[in-house]
Amino acid sequence: MSGAGAILPRSEAADLVVAARVRRGLSWAQVAAEVGAPVVWTTAALLGQHPMSAEQAAAACALLGLDDAVAESLRQQPSRGSDPARMADPTVYRFV
């Protein structure tokens, strides 16, 4: 993260979410239950594909032991197609 007030990049937030989930031995379904949303939607949101509400981001970060910087990143609207690795997947590429 660079500069004062800069928002944590979504890809970094997603990496922190995955690491925290694995470290705590939680499934995506358990995280989704805490967030109060479907597992597929929650997983996609936590991996940076769409924004979460403030309440959802706070619930996920509390469960995962992550700070407000991650929650702030999870609330931001992503730019579709901004992740080159995901854009290499032919299935994803067709829908962007």
TrEMBL record:
It holds the Pfam family CYNS_N. The keyword Lyase applies. InterPro entries: Cyanase, CYNS_N, Lambda_DNA-bd_dom_sf. It is an enzyme of class 4 (lyase). Residues 10-77 form the Cyanate hydratase N-terminal domain. The keyword Protein transport does not apply. Residues 74-96 are annotated as: Disordered. GO terms for molecular function: cyanate hydratase activity; DNA binding. This is Cyanate hydratase. Its EC number is 4.2.1.104. Keywords: Lyase.
